[in-house]
Amino acid sequence: MAAAHQSGYADAMNDQGETVSAIARLLPHSIRQRFNSLGPYVRGLLEAEGYATLSRDHVETIHLAVFAYTLKEFLQAGTRAAKTAAEKFEEHGFPGFSVGNTIFTKDNGPTLRGDEIAALLARSLEGTTIGERVESAQSMKALVRGLAKEFSRG
Questions:
Q1: Average pLDDT for consecutive 10-residue bins of the chain (154 residues)?
Q2: Is 129:147 a contact under the CB 8 Å cutoff?
Q3: Stated pTM of the model
């Protein structure tokens, strides 16, 4: 898999006989719904930008990249929200807050978990087209446009 990892995630999926839809079926239901909801957005934007003729593999790769981007943003936003809430509680003399049995302070494990998982995601995509684009993208739209432009050059 190391050679496939370096040549890009789409190649790795093809080498393993996997498809994006097969990967999506492995996701928990709520995350799979989020993933599936991004497909129409990606296809609509590609069509509007004049990239409707990209191959199915390229469209699926862009869809996967958009999912990775939104997942990273979601995880990082969760950490920011937990930190902010913990800091507000601290300002009022409380060490943090709890949700169920989980305690959140401004810098403990549960608070930082989103950033940690986002970093794991980034490491798993290192050296791939998706990973490079997800890390440098300023927005989902810019990510889609950049990958579409790259793939249309062949």
A1: 39 50 85 91 95 92 94 96 96 96 96 96 92 94 95 84
A2: yes
A3: 0.81
How far apart are alpha carbons 40 and 130 in whole angstroms? 19
- In whole angstroms, how far apart are CA 146 and each of 12, 67, 86, 138? 21, 15, 37, 11
Comparing C-alpha atoms, which of 153, 141, 6, 152 is closest to residue 65?
Answer: 141
